[in-house]
């Protein structure tokens, strides 16, 4: 489509240097880079606004400077950063200007084809309702969409955009980029866009280039953005590249300098615990980072309220999330800062153990009912496993865990729980073998994220060892408390739920 060979050029004080780039037919190419790195200068060279001082630019194999302006405008259109409209044109008149390469003679006459394309461009950019209005009276975002309509009315093969989402709100940013993707797919449009938002670039571009100090540094697919060091070197800010929850695209988190982490918290002095018949509630004055498979707040989040709700054994789990949300609201616990679990175990039977190891403070809170104990290695009829009789384990760690360390902590806690069931010879009623857990166990790992990051929480580490021993002891105690309760209330024998 377009090829740049060793292209240099620009202004006396600033030049883009030795750029080599081949734009592929039908791709969405994003050009990124810090302010003043030369992105707009490169775009001006590519659109013929600035002549290159050396090197060559080919459009469909022909040097760019051999095209007449109308021929070039049938192939290429540009949506610039600032477009000044000198006359008091209506929106429709502005969009109609996009048809000028197709007009013959001096008369400003539109064919039926022109009219159709103008209407289509206005509809696609959602500006039809302003068609009679004066362009100058529109808002910045509305003007941007009208100018895009004008650029699309040119029916280009290649569309250049300089920060096209600048004035746009979230909805119109999304619809502009979706529209470009659609035209890319349905009309084979090639898009070259200067973008500032790395997240937008990662979501919409097929390939991207990073500009720095007048040089095009990297041309690669969007996964190059996962290279945090490169982004940091280019922009001189610290970034955190995270995986998009549904797409294989990186997304970026920034940490403001003055917010280098949550305020300090002494874990063992900083928690509050209340317990009544319905709720075991552990809260902190500030949030902890959490990995959990709880009913409410599952996944990775931050929370300062950790709630274990009692439900009857026959609890009908039609919509447990809605139930927990309601219970949290009834108790004025902020739902967006809460993690919520359920258990049929009496909450007074919880076990709480604390421990310090090296620089870590640890707290484990466990409730354990083993009526539904299951040996995971055996075959079961899944329908018989859905009762609430569960081991809920919450651990709180005064440490800074990487995501990998959170996964490691889940392993450690699970191994410790399983070992406790082994020690107590808790059996799977269906198979008679030693149980490895219950059918609906929940786990919450919460960390203060204070101090240096630790990448591991397995048994080869001080943290992992301490965590394992603590959860082992707490699980033993919780199961024993549960058994004691069961036998004193005469509700069942040792192995009943
Ligand atoms: N018309 C001009 N005459 C002289 N120098 C210019 C001109 N336009 C831009 N420059 C200079 O060229 C350098 C690169 O500018 P350019 O606009 O290409 O950067 P950019 O990467 O697009 O920046 P931004 O992200 O801020 O839009 C800057 O130092 C700028 O001052």
TrEMBL record:
Transmembrane stretches in the record are none
Question: Which keywords does UniProt give here?
Answer: ATP-binding, Nucleotide-binding, Translocase, Transport
> Molecular function (GO) terms listed?
ATP binding; ATP hydrolysis activity
Q: Does the keyword Translocase apply?
A: yes
Q: Which InterPro entries match?
A: AAA+_ATPase, ABC_transporter-like_ATP-bd, ABC_transporter-like_CS, AdoCbi_amidolase, P-loop_NTPase
Record PROSITE patterns: ABC_TRANSPORTER_1, ABC_TRANSPORTER_2
Q: Which residues form the ABC transporter domain?
A: 2-238
Q: Which residues form a coiled coil?
A: none
Name of the protein in its database record: Adenosylcobinamide amidohydrolase
């Amino acid at each position: 489509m377009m090829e740049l060979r060793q292209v240099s050029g620009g202004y006396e004080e600033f030049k883009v240097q030795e750029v080599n780039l081949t734009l592929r037919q039908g791709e969405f190419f994003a050009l990124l880079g810090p302010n003043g790195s030369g992105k707009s200068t490169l775009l001006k060279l590519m659109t013929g606004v600035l002549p290159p001082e050396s090197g060559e630019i080919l459009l469909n194999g022909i040097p760019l400077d051999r095209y007449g302006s109308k021929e070039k405008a049938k192939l290429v259109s540009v949506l610039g950063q600032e477009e000044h409209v000198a006359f008091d044109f209506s929106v429709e008149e502005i969009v109609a200007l996009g048809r000028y390469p197709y007009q013959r003679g001096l008369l400003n006459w539109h064919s039926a084809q022109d009219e159709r394309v103008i209407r289509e461009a206005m509809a696609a950019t959602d500006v039809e309702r302003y068609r009679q209005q004066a362009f100058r009276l529109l808002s910045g975002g509305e003007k941007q969409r009208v100018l895009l309509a004008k650029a699309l009315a040119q029916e280009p093969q290649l569309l250049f955009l300089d920060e096209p989402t600048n004035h746009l709100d979230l909805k119109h940013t999304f619809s502009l980029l979706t529209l470009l993707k659609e035209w890319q797919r349905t009309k084979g449009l090639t898009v070259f866009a200067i973008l500032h938002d790395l997240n937008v670039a990662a979501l919409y571009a097929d390939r991207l280039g990073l500009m720095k100090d007048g040089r095009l540094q990297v041309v690669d697919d969007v996964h190059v953005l996962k290279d945090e060091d490169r982004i940091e070197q280019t922009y001189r800010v610290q970034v955190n590249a995270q995986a998009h929850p549904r797409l294989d695209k990186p997304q970026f988190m920034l940490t403001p300098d003055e917010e280098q982490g949550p305020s300090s918290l002494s874990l063992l002095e900083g928690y509050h615990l209340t317990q009544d018949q319905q709720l075991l509630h552990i809260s902190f004055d500030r949030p902890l980072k959490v990995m959990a498979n709880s009913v409410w707040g599952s996944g990775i989040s931050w929370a300062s309220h950790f709630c274990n709700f009692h439900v009857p054994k026959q609890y009908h789990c039609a919509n447990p999330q809605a139930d927990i949300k309601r219970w949290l609201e009834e108790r004025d616990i902020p739902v967006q800062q809460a993690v919520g679990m359920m258990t049929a175990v009496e909450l007074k039977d919880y076990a709480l153990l604390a421990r310090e190891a090296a620089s870590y403070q640890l707290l484990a809170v466990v409730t354990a009912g083993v009526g539904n104990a299951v040996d995971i290695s055996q075959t079961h009829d899944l329908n018989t496993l859905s009762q609430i009789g569960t081991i809920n384990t919450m651990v709180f760690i005064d440490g800074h865990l990487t995501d990998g360390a959170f996964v490691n902590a889940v392993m450690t806690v699970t191994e410790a729980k399983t070992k406790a069931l082994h020690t107590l010879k808790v059996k799977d009623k269906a198979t008679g073998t030693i149980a490895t857990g219950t059918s609906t166990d929940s786990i919450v790992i919460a960390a203060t994220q204070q101090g240096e990051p630790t990448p591991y929480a397995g048994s080869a580490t001080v943290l992992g060892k301490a965590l394992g021993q603590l959860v082992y002891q707490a699980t033993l105690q919780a199961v024993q408390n549960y058994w004691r309760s069961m036998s004193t209330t005469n509700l069942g024998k040792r192995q009943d739920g």
